[in-house]
Amino acid sequence: MIKDPVNKNIVSQKDLRHFLDIENLSQSLILDILDLAESFAGVSGQPVKKVPLLRGKTIVNLFFEASTRTRTTFELAAKRLSADFLNINIDYSATKKGETLLDTLRNLEAMHCDMFIVRHPSSGAAEFISKNVSQNISVINAGDGRHAHPTQAMLDVFTIRKYFSDFKKLKIAIVGDILHSRVARSLMHAFRILEVPDIRVIGPKTLLPNGVQHMGVTPYVDMDEGIKNCDVVIMLRLQNERMNSSFIPDENEYYNLYGFTPNRLDLISKNGKVMHPGPVNRGVEISSEVADGDRSVILQQVSNGIAVRMAILSLSMQP
Ligand code: CP
Description:
The chain is α/β, with parallel strands linked by helices. It has helices at 27-41, 69-80, 101-110, 125-130, 150-163, 182-193, 223-226, 251-258, 288-291, 298-316, and strands spanning 58-63, 84-89, 115-120, 138-144, 171-175, 198-202, 218-220, 232-235, 273-275. It is globular and about 55 Å long.
């Protein structure tokens, strides 16, 4: 552990065996990861899209929840680093026959795997796994419940840095279902650590966590007021799978109040960008015109996920 002016209890690069959360990373470590990702970004454009950094290592995707972007970009990142890569299909694994999670892990350890990339519907699952694997295994959190999605936050800040060089001058809004969003939680930590001076969260009161202002952000219920002059607006989908009751009256009303429609583009800064971690629900939180328009960087976020995940995999497995 080393000291940092923004974050007092932080992980240094040499402690980065597991990548479970953003909140204990230092500003300098986040910037180092972004710089390393920058150096990997060119690999995808080479005729042979590979570097030999993780040759001989075995990485396993353990996804207990649906995913398109995270699952695939982790696989591409691992393969571009020359690692051997396994996708465990949980629906066809022995967990469906009653095997416990820990027994599944023990069996994968017996196959001499070096890293588990874990997505799980329960908050804290990746940390639990990290505490129950042997010393030589790394664990990466690919999204746990509503708790954290740290690699998504890293690829989002990487994307923002492509357009805005100084985080300390930015106005950034996150809009939608903040309450159930692990992406929002990880982004709020990342922006605080990077000293973004104006972080806003926007949504109906039912979808804003109690006391969210104590996370260093300003809550807004009125979207038009909240996105005014923002450099970056990050739209979130309604996380229906994590709602145990109805949090909004109906989707049409939600779209009118919180949907990013073309008329709202005039409210953000003239160079402002629209982001979304995906999956996008068109006509619920964002219109197709905005999602596919020239202010949207949604697909660039996906592409950037490969380089950022290459950086995180390589740092977590350094000797
Ligand atoms: N952003 C994100 O986590 O997308 P997936 O659920 O498709 O991985």
